[in-house]
Write a structure and sequence with these properties.
Layout lengths: L3 E6 L2 E7 L4 H4 L14 E4 L1 E6 L1 E2 L2 E2 L5 H12 L3 E7 L5 H14 L8 E8 L21 H11 L3 E6 L6 H10 L3 E4 L6 H10 L3 E2 L15 H8 L4 E5 L7 H11 L4 E4 L11 E5 L2 E6 L2 E4 L2 E5 L6 H10 L5 H8 L1 H6 L17 E4 L5 E6 L2 E5 L1
Parallel strand pairs: 4-7, 7-8, 8-9, 9-10, 10-11, 11-12, 12-13
Antiparallel strand pairs: 1-2, 3-18, 5-6, 14-15, 15-16, 16-17, 18-19, 19-20
């Protein structure tokens, strides 16, 4: 909409549409503050369902302060909501993280809102561990999952697991019954094993192509199952490093915008100088925009990606229309998280989570629940 107007009242969107048609929405409204997008693009706020850290902080720090620093760092790049993501660790440490996330969930952070917890590992395949510490990897444990669910409560949003591990199918069914989104990842699963997991209730693939059995014409693997099965939404780390633009284009053409969730997989060094950091308990070297394990420089260790950068890559390198790229960063993740009734769209009654992009698709302003949390 070339001359669009967004009206926010009480933290909700009261009107979104052509300015010329806003008469009824504005009648009787006292305008407290007016913002001019200055030729920019007003979009629904970005939702990052897979983010480990930022601003020098990490979800595994297990502190409210760390979660707030992450939320503020990512708000500067258009993220209005995020799901704090763990690394593989001892069970007691994961319980600590779950406790803190539940405590901070949906409280004002001065940045992006915290939607809950994404448990990535420890129930993943050592063959596809990536930057996870293999010392903590193990098959799914019913007792551990029950404890985590009790501590995290409704904050337990997503889990990444390898479906070929012993007990995985039973765990998937148990998790789905409790409204936890199950995503297949860090896996050597065959096509058939991945499909069995989808039949059991898994509905997503974690960072498609990365740390999973790849696509081969005689062995389509987990990636092939995720691309072929319409029930599955796929995460993409669209930084041009984790996934080649040609593979990003393939995923988009197979799944469409409704089947792709842009994620950052960002680690703590976002907004920090190059140097040595940690991801989980493993040392990581950050240099020239990439994070790699210190002891295995060939292995990527998360990213320094931001959601506005992911949108830019999809538009500028992959050729996706802007509205479709924005959907992948907003409405599609909201649908995957069961929050599409209030997040992911600019529509009356929805939460006023908004990002204003400059014409070059960098973030100019971020609004969370009607409050400006970032302005450049």
């Amino acid at each position: 909409i070339d001359d669009g107007l967004l009206v926010i009242e009480g933290g909700k969107i009261a009107y979104a549409g052509p300015a010329a048609n806003a008469g009824d929405a504005l009648r009787g409204v006292t305008v407290v503050e007016e913002w001019d997008a200055r030729g920019g693009i007003i979009c629904p706020g970005f939702i990052d369902g897979h983010v480990h850290g930022g601003g020098g902080a990490d979800a595994m720090d297990a502190s409210a302060e760390a979660l707030v620093r992450m939320a503020r760092a990512h708000a500067a790049h258009g993220t209005t909501a995020l799901v704090a993501t763990t690394m593989s660790a001892p069970h007691e440490q994961l319980l600590e993280v779950a406790h803190v996330v539940r405590k901070v969930q949906e409280t004002a952070t001065g940045g992006a809102r915290l939607l809950g917890l994404h448990l990535e590992g420890p129930y993943i395949n050592p063959e596809r561990a990536g930057a996870h510490n293999r010392a903590w990897l193990r098959p799914p444990s019913a007792a551990e999952l029950a404890q985590l669910a009790a501590v995290a409560g409704p904050a337990f949003r997503t889990i990444t697991l390898a479906p070929e591990l012993p007990g995985a199918e039973t765990a998937i069914r148990w998790l789905v019954e409790r409204a936890v989104s199950v995503s297949l990842g860090h896996t050597a699963a065959t096509y058939e094993q991945a499909e069995a997991a989808v039949d059991a209730g898994a509905r997503a693939a974690t960072h498609l192509f990365n740390a999973m059995s790849g696509l081969h014409h005689r062995a389509p693997g987990c990636a092939g199952a995720a691309l072929a099965d319409a029930r599955v939404r796929v995460e993409l780390i669209a930084d041009g490093v984790h996934v080649h633009p040609g593979a990003l284009r393939l995923a988009y053409q197979c799944k469409g915008a409704a089947g792709v969730m842009l994620v950052t997989d960002c680690m703590r060094a976002l907004g920090c100088p190059d140097g040595e950091y940690t991801l989980g308990d493993l040392p990581v070297v950050v240099r020239e925009g990439q994070a790699r394990l210190r002891d295995n420089p060939a292995a990527l260790a998360g990213s320094l990606l931001t959601m506005d950068q992911a949108v830019r890559v999809m538009v500028q390198q992959v050729g996706v229309p802007l509205a479709e790229a924005v959907r992948m960063a907003s409405l599609t993740p909201a649908e995957a998280l069961g929050l599409a009734h209030r997040l992911g769209r600019l529509a009356a009654g929805f939460d006023a989570d908004v990002v204003v992009l400059d014409p070059d698709l960098t973030t100019a302003m971020t609004i969370v629940a009607g409050e400006v949390v970032f302005r450049r």
